[in-house]
Amino acid sequence: MPNYKLIYFNMRGRAEIIRYIFAYLDIEYEDHRIELADWPKIKSTLPFGKIPVLEVDGLTLHQSLAIARYLTKTTDLAGETDLEQCHVDAIVDTLDDFMSRFPWAEKKQDIKDQMFQDLLTHDAPRLLQDLHAYLGDKEWLIGNSVTWADFYWDICSTTLLALKPDLLDMYPRLRALRKKVQAIPAIADWIQRRPQTRM
């Protein structure tokens, strides 16, 4: 088993999907969390100056979703067939496209607040309607068992609900899917013991 070291800020953010996968697959790793004050001196040492990164026996991998695909590639979390894997990737990319539209680094608070409000009020409902219809009466988003797309939905929706607590009131099946993911023993254990952060 390789030695894994995950480097990210002390928040869920873009590293949380990797932590969910490690938890579910029962893989040991070092969860190295850096403080914002230390970021400038660390940034220049990393590929493309971004985190999270995952060190695998000293080799540095970057981009959270690429890392997630690497970790799940030979597991059922990726989907059981090539077509399912494509669907998993498509749902993950759809969620990530939306989450990437938020101006997380905007320094002017009034502009940031307005953009967040617009996304949550006008754009999020369209995405949620599409996801709700896509899930339909299925137990999981893709196939007959949990995939990392279900994990990513739980992670993204947790962040969205921190911003707008009533966001999922009209989408009972999406709320139920969150509960199913959070009830998986390995995920429930991780949620219970992870550092509590807003994002």
Write the layout of secondary structure elements.
Layout: E1 4-9, H1 16-25, E2 30-34, H2 39-43, E3 53-56, E4 59-62, H3 64-72, H4 82-99, H5 109-135, H6 148-163, H7 172-183, H8 185-193
Helix pairs in contact: 1-3, 1-6, 1-8, 4-6, 6-7
Question: What gyration radius follows from the Cα positions, in whole Å?
Answer: 17 Å
* Fraction of residues in β-strands: 5-15%
Shape: globular
In what order do the strands lie side by side in the largest sheet?
A: 2-1-3-4
Q: End-to-end distance, in Å?
A: 31 Å
Rounded mean pLDDT is: 96
Tally of alpha and pi helices = 8
Oligomeric state of the chains present here: single chain
Low-confidence stretches: none
Order of helices and strands: EHEHEEHHHHHH
Counted beta strands: 4
Structure explained in plain terms:
The protein is α+β, with helices and mostly antiparallel strands and 199 residues long. The protein is built from eight helices and four strands; from the N terminus they run E-H-E-H-E-E-H-H-H-H-H-H. The protein has helices at 16-25, 39-43, 64-72, 82-99, 109-135, 148-163, 172-183, 185-193, and strands at residues 4-9, 30-34, 53-56, 59-62. The protein has a four-stranded mixed sheet, with helices on one face. Strand 3 (53-56) and strand 4 form a beta hairpin. Helix 6 (148-163) packs across helix 7 (172-183). It is globular, with a radius of gyration of 17 Å.
Short characterization:
By secondary structure, the chain is α+β, with helices and mostly antiparallel strands.
